């Protein structure tokens, strides 16, 4: 089970996300939130990437679920932080209850409310088994990774396992330079998304 020290010595969050970005297929929708909404655009930019209100905590999973239900022929990936998930643990039950199988949740767990100043979350010093919580909620695939080489070696296979999928990545804090930039303008993002989804 995780401890605060495990998180502080976790894999590089940038490199962990780079693994996901490199595997992201052309028709997959990606929804980021909070810290990941500022890191992902530096790794890749596509019209199907939605960097959703980095100041709106816990928004990534519900938005991604809505897109997964509306676009059942596409895979949808939600990237969220542990602080955001703690604010909406019930979203895991909602995902399973919806019947959506084309959704993957990647949890970046560093024990911090990163974009609000780096405060520890209430769970930072506790042994919280997020993958176990997702498994108990009914996720058929629920795994965790703490080592970057292990994640690199297994990510491609894990992302093809039965969905919905929950993947907890134990990561270190993001480099400061990744948190100071802004996300692409939301109207621009939404216009690109609507065009890509062929929504009038």
Shape estimate: globular
CATH superfamily: Thiamin diphosphate (ThDP)-binding fold, Pyr/PP domains
How can the largest sheet be summarized? 6 strands, parallel
End-to-end Cα distance, whole Å, is 47 Å
> Which residues form runs of ≥5 with pLDDT under 50?
1-5
Order of helices and strands: HHEHEHEHHEEEHEHEHH
Structure description:
The protein has 200 residues and is α/β, with parallel strands linked by helices. It has helices spanning 4-8, 13-23, 36-43, 60-70, 82-86, 90-98, 130-137, 148-158, 176-179, 186-197, and strands spanning 29-32, 49-51, 76-81, 103-109, 112-113, 119-120, 141-145, 165-170. It has a six-stranded parallel sheet, sandwiched between helices. The protein has a two-stranded antiparallel sheet with strand order 5-6. Strand 1 (29-32), helix 3 and strand 2 form a beta-alpha-beta unit. The radius of gyration is 15 Å and the shape is globular. The model is unreliable at 1-5 (pLDDT under 50).
């Amino acid at each position: 089970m995780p401890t605060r020290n495990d998180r502080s010595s976790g894999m590089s969050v940038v490199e962990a996300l780079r693994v996901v970005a490199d595997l992201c297929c052309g028709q997959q929708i990606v929804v980021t939130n909070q810290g990941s909404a500022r890191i992902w655009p530096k790794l890749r930019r596509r019209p199907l990437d939605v960097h959703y209100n980095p100041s709106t905590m816990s928004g990534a999973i519900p938005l991604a679920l809505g897109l997964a239900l509306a676009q059942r022929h596409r895979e949808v990936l939600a990237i969220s932080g542990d602080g955001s998930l703690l604010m909406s643990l019930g979203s895991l039950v909602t995902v399973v209850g919806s019947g959506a199988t084309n959704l993957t949740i990647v949890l970046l767990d560093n024990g911090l409310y990163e974009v609000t100043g780096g405060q520890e979350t209430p769970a930072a010093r506790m042994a919280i088994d997020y993958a176990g919580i997702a498994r108990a909620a009914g996720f058929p695939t629920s795994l965790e990774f703490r080592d970057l080489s292990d994640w690199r070696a297994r990510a491609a296979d894990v992302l093809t396992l039965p969905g919905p999928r929950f993947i907890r990545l134990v990561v270190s804090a993001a480099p400061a330079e990744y948190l100071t930039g802004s996300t692409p303008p939301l109207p621009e993002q939404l216009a690109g998304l609507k065009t890509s989804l062929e929504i009038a």
